[in-house]
Write a structure and sequence with these properties.
The protein has two domains: 2-71, Roll (Ubiquitin-like (UB roll)), CATH 3.10.20.80; 79-162, 2-Layer Sandwich (Translation Initiation Factor IF3), CATH 3.30.110. The chain is 35% helix and 23% strand. The protein is built from four helices and seven strands, in the order E-E-H-E-E-H-E-H-E-H-E. The strands form two sheets. It has a four-stranded mixed sheet with strand order 2-1-4-3. The radius of gyration is 30 Å and the shape is rod-shaped. The two termini are 45 Å apart.
């Protein structure tokens, strides 16, 4: 920008986008200062490098506004996890399942995990049964409900991931 441009010659473009031609950086800087604007190098790899006459402060402000606007419209999908046990009580099951539904409504993915302790791991069918109940309770909010019967016992846990509808 301005005095920091080190090329011998530069191609200059004015604020409307018209080419002013190839000139030395000093002449281009003088032209920019006459218009009370800045000389900014926009393509340093070109032969000769391309410089533009613009209001650099206004340009940076507009860039930050555009970046803020694009961040406002994007939604990050996070993975929430709800843990169940094979011998879960009816009320606890309903309470946790309501949280699963709430997370899916907010647009988050939900990992439903069944944790086994001790001899509970000898009966993975109890965990599969709970997973089926959870999927059944939240199937209207899932993009495509996974098949809980394919969930395998990995160590002492069994898990599936529910994805929200678009």
């Amino acid at each position: 920008m301005n005095e920091r441009i080190r090329a011998r010659q530069v191609r200059v473009i004015d604020e409307e986008g018209n080419q002013l031609g190839i000139m030395s950086p000093d002449d281009a800087l003088r032209e920019a200062q006459e218009r009370t604007l800045d000389l900014v190098e926009v393509a340093s790899n070109a032969q000769p490098p391309v410089c533009r006459i613009m209001d650099y402060g206004k340009y940076r402000y507009q860039q930050s506004k555009r970046a803020k606007e694009s961040r406002k419209h994007q939604h990050t999908i996070s993975l929430k996890e709800i843990k169940y046990r094979p011998k879960i009580d009816k009320h606890d099951f309903e309470y946790k399942t309501n949280h699963v539904r709430q997370f899916l409504e907010e647009g988050n993915k939900v990992k439903v995990t069944i944790m086994f302790r001790g001899r509970e791991a000898a009966h993975p069918e109890f965990g599969t049964e709970i997973l089926q109940k959870v999927v059944e309770a939240a199937k209207d909010l899932c993009a495509e409900p996974p098949d809980p019967t394919v969930a395998r016992l990995e160590g002492r846990t069994m898990a599936i991931v529910l994805s929200p509808t678009k």
